[in-house]
Amino acid sequence: MTDIMLSHLPSGERSKAQKHSDYRSKIVSNYQPLHRELYNLVPRLCFVPSFLKAINENTEDSFRSIISEASPGVFVFDMLLPSFCEMMLAEIDNFEKWVGETKFRIMRPNTMNKYGAVLDDFGLDTMLDKLMECFIRPISKVFFNDVGGATLDSHHGFVVEYGKDRDVDLGFHVDDSEVTLNVCLGNQFVGGELFFRGTRCEKHVNTATKSDEIFDYCHVPGQAVLHRGRHRHGARATTSGHRVNMLLWCRSSSFRELKRLQKDFSSWCGECSCEKRGESTDKYVKALHAPQA
Ligand SMILES: O=C(O)CCC(=O)C(=O)O
Ligand SMILES: [Fe+2]
């Protein structure tokens, strides 16, 4: 973060941001990357040809030709080349080896994970910015325009790791993002399915799930899932093997500003939309008592 940006923050925030910026600089100036080519996004080294072609055409039709809407608001597509996934996995291993050897105390991706790493903190922030701006924002503009998909302007990029000696599962939650990209890097694993339970605004986050909102997804290496951050979800236990996923929580500052002034989110919140249609929620009582996961 530059000094100019720091000077625009309130002083409490400024010292927090300064500390984080110092933390990142310390890592970047000491950690020796394994694959330097990862740190500059080279599209033909990262993406499968079908994904590149759709992005180059940049039309709704081209996106729809490679992306399937597996359940309302959950978009799935082939994205990463196996060779890129392998390089990322090796880079993450290398980073963790460095952390172990130097005993550097790293921050975990969020309060839900004990393992995993923040990719932005060890130099991958520029490449992930490019990934968001040139690849995820054009798609989000088409499918998630109602939550600021066209104006995504910052991100939190990290990996999560599950299996023996790692995290086991991930509880039911919403992300601190407008749009989330979740792509499996590998490797061999059993379990770890994502379960989705409908999109909700802050006010309705704990309301019942309707039967048509129940959707389970099995991760496939190289395959991406794109969903609204407010789409409630979790990950089941990875029962054997080792699963690593790359997450990019994409945010829109202008959408967040706008949202503060609004009360009706019926274009994307399942409960606001029921209220607007004047639908009784009685028929969902059964779903309320059904297990969430
Ligand atoms: O394990 C997964 O695939 C889900 C991760 C996730 O939802 C998150 O980190 O926000
Ligand atoms: Fe999540």
Keywords:
293 residues, alpha+beta, Jelly Rolls, eight-stranded antiparallel sheet, four-stranded antiparallel sheet, 10 helices, 12 strands, 35% helix, disordered C terminus, binds 2-oxoglutaric acid, binds fe (ii) ion
Structural features, described:
This protein has 293 residues and is an alpha+beta fold. The protein has one domain (29-289): q2cbj1_9rhob like domain (Jelly Rolls, Sandwich), CATH 2.60.120. The protein is 35% helix and 24% strand. It is built from 10 helices and 12 strands. It has helices spanning 3-6, 11-30, 43-46, 49-57, 60-66, 82-102, 125-143, 253-259, 270-277, 285-289, and strands at residues 68-71, 74-78, 117-118, 154-163, 170-173, 179-186, 189-191, 194-199, 214-217, 223-228, 231-235, 238-251. The strands form 2 sheets. Strands 1, 2, 3, 4, 6, 7, 10 and 12 form an 8-stranded antiparallel beta sheet that branches. A hairpin with a 2-residue loop joins β1 (68-71) and β2 (74-78). α4 (49-57) packs antiparallel against α5 (60-66). The longest helix is centred in the N-terminal third of the chain and has 21 residues, at 82-102. The radius of gyration is 20 Å and the shape is globular. Residues 285-293 have low confidence and may be disordered. Bound molecules: 2-oxoglutaric acid and fe (ii) ion. Fe (ii) ion binds next to loops.
Task: Provide a compact summary of the structure.
Strands 1, 2, 3, 4, 6, 7, 10 and 12 form an eight-stranded antiparallel β-sheet that branches. The protein is of the alpha+beta class and 293 residues long. It has ten helices and twelve strands.
